Amino acid sequence: MDFATLQEKIRQTYGPSFDHGLIERAYAFAKESHEGQMRKSGEEFISHPLAVAALLVERKLDAPTIAAAILHDVAEDSPYTPKDVQDRFGPEVAFLVAGVTKLKGVRYPEFAPSARTDGRTENLRKMMLAFAEDIRVILIKLMDRLHNMETISFLKPDAQKRIAHETLEMYAPLANRLGMGELKGQLEDLAFPVAYPNEYRELKSRATETLEARLAFVARLIPTIRELLERAAVPILDIHARAKHWYSLWKKLERYEGNVDRVYDLIAVRIIVDSVEHCYGALGAIHGAWPPLPGRIKDFIALP
């Protein structure tokens, strides 16, 4: 990621009202701070905070958060101090940068099964939230972890293993708690083959054929559903399918003795409508065409 690409992404996402000057000043300061530093991948270090900022732009965070993302490694990996950040960018950006720096001290120490069941993971998640004081700090940290997982192959094997387990035990559940299900799945699928390589290879070899067959079936099914809902006068904003993430599938198969055929949500169809009324209208039309499985229907509108 380079700054010109980030600028273009910001322009497309926010328009002229965004504080572009703040972002330009943050980039200039970060570039100077990280001058000569390189990542394990061989890229200039500045590419990492820019990539983290870009991930936050995709989620439409505010200008101070984007600036803090660009600056999030300055206080730790350069001669500059948190006071320097505050003097140049004000208390809000400095607060966010300091929060991310503080979170770097929170690490998951052990990965034996016993260590994952004694409550320490939950305590660490709570500690992260308590440390943060502002949800934007956690969001910067989650995007920092996502980009680090995308480039994890350049690290030494023992570091890869530790970071992958930490991601599965701390960061993915934290994303889930914040309602960021897609991010949770991304983090898990990046960490799974590193943390459990044998299990990952075995799962892919067993489930890929079934998964591809179901994807092909759903591709044929979606036009039928669209036609059905149009006849029922249910307006559709979007309809698409997604495959279950690999790590989530593995965890579910552990409960079903490895039987893929017992996993009903290996593929899911998502129908997006504009109101609760149309949601129930879509459900009624679907059930009129395909009777529901007893005991498998969950109504998260009536029972959130």
Key terms for this structure?
304 residues, mainly alpha, two-stranded antiparallel sheet, globular
In short:
This protein has 304 residues and is mainly alpha-helical.
Give an overview in words.
65% of the residues lie in helices and 4% in strands. It has 304 residues and is mostly helical. A two-stranded antiparallel sheet has the order 1-2. The longest helix is centred in the last third of the chain and has 35 residues, at 197-231. It is globular and about 65 Å long.
Strand percentage: under 5%
- Spell the H/E element sequence: HHHHHHHHHHHEHEH
- The counted number of beta strands is 2
Sequence stretches where pLDDT stays below 50 over 5 or more residues: none
Indicate the radius of gyration in whole angstroms: 22 Å
Q: Please state how the strands of the largest beta sheet are arranged side by side.
A: 1-2
Mean pLDDT: 88
Largest sheet: 2 strands, antiparallel
- Count of runs of 4 or more consecutive helical residues: 13
Head-to-tail CA distance between termini: 39 Å
Instruction: Please state the oligomeric state of the protein chains shown.
Output: single chain
Q: How are the elements arranged and paired?
A:
Layout: H1 3-14, H2 20-33, H3 47-58, H4 63-71, H5 74-77, H6 82-103, H7 120-132, H8 135-150, H9 157-177, H10 181-195, H11 197-231, E1 238-243, H12 246-255, E2 267-272, H13 276-289
